[in-house]
Write a structure and sequence with these properties.
Elements lengths: L15 H19 L3 E5 L4 H14 L3 E7 L7 H12 L3 E6 L1 H8 L5 H22 L3 E5 L4 H7 L18 E3 L7 H10 L4 H4 L19 H20 L8 E5 L5 E5 L2 E13 L14 H14 L3 E6 L13
Parallel strand pairs: 1-2, 1-4, 2-3, 4-5, 8-9
Antiparallel strand pairs: 6-8, 7-8
Helix pairs in contact: 1-2, 1-7, 2-7, 4-5, 9-10
Length: 326
């Protein structure tokens, strides 16, 4: 039997009752696989790794060691939520690594998008490996691989795979949600008691805000981007759009334009609002947002975010535009 193939008889998990059944089965399976050994998990706070963490905490408690690496490119409040939910509420064995300075120092002056992605990916592996080495007696590595990852990439999880573990740290994998589709992972997450904002999180790229602070990242522009993004999310939430729009975020590009503030000339950044609907991210359309909502978001960003004098709404579909700006 191919363990990476979803059996045709497997029922789609659409209800809390089916999720409970799945959770019970997986708890038993994980306990049988792991015994009294320790398991390491890179916990980003995204849906997949969060659901795996909650499931493993239920199955093996403190035998799970979660490592949350804050690369300094998280959205506002995200690392805090990981610490609150897994550290405080679930009392997990959680190691929090604030690697902000390491990442931002390595990225300083780097403008090429692919080079930025490579630096972020490589640094992540390095920080995670350093933490892994500090742990004694780890035998397993848990991963939030889901079924589309297996279908798309021949079993290699492109985005979540921490990969690149040195030879002496090769662990056996624990992948409890690898046969589930994303909607099923969300149903399981809700049944495990994870907060709605975690379970229904929109997709967020691994390099995080790094690809939305275009060109060479600076700390001041990154700060403005994070604040603008938080305002957009808050207002979309209040308007009931969070579950209706597939992905939405802000971009702060590395160019300025003239503005006027307090009677004086300013030379500030624009904030670009990006919102898209799509089925598979291969093509995407732009929703017709309510004018009053756009105006409210604009007013708030201009009043609350430093260094910004314009707000733009990107009307470009994919293609020819991509969803992200770089
Ligand atoms: P594009 O910009 O290619 O984005 O239209 C399609 C989807 O992929 C996400 N994306 C990424 N996700 N690492 C990721 O994990 C990346 O480097 C990356 N680049 C784009 C993007 O957010 C969108 O959902």
């Amino acid at each position: 039997m191919d363990l990476n193939k979803r059996p045709e008889s497997m029922e789609r998990i659409t209800t809390a009752a089916l999720a409970e059944k799945f959770i019970d089965e997986q708890v038993a399976a994980v306990r049988a696989q792991v015994g009294d050994k320790k398991v390491l998990l890179a916990l980003s706070g995204g849906v997949d790794s969060s659901v795996v963490a909650a499931l493993l905490i239920k199955a093996i408690g403190k035998q799970l060691v979660c490592v949350h690496v804050n690369h300094g490119l998280m959205r506002k409040g995200e690392s805090e939520q990981v610490i609150e939910v897994f550290g405080a509420q679930m009392d997990a064995n959680l190691i929090y690594v604030d690697a902000t300075d390491r990442f931002l120092d390595k990225l300083a002056g780097v403008a090429d998008p692919e080079t930025k992605r490579k630096i972020i990916g490589a640094e992540f592996i390095e920080v995670f490996n350093e933490e892994a080495r500090k742990q004694e007696g780890i035998s397993f590595l848990a991963q939030g691989t889901i079924y589309p990852d297996i279908l798309e990439s021949d079993g290699v999880k492109a985005h979540h795979n921490v990969g690149g573990l040195p030879e002496d740290m090769k662990f056996e994998l624990v992948e409890p949600v690898k046969l589930l589709y994303k909607d099923e992972v969300r149903v399981v997450g809700a049944a495990l008691g994870l907060p709605d904002s975690m379970v229904n999180r929109q997709p967020f790229p691994g390099p995080g805000l790094g690809v939305r602070c275009t060109g060479a990242i600076t700390r001041d522009r990154l700060h403005s981007l994070r604040e603008a993004d938080a305002i957009l999310r808050e207002e979309f939430d209040k308007a009931g759009l969070t579950k209706q729009v597939w992905q939405f975020f802000t971009v702060v590009p590395d160019f300025r334009s003239t503005g006027v503030r307090d009677g004086k000339r300013a030379w500030d950044w624009p904030v670009i609002i990006r919102a898209v609907n799509t089925v598979d991210a291969m093509t995407a359309t732009v929703p017709e947002l309510d004018w009053a909502l756009l105006k409210k978001i604009t007013d708030r960003i201009l009043a609350e975010v430093p260094g910004v004098c314009r707000v733009l709404y990107d009307l470009s579909p994919k293609g020819p535009a991509t969803i992200e700006w770089e």
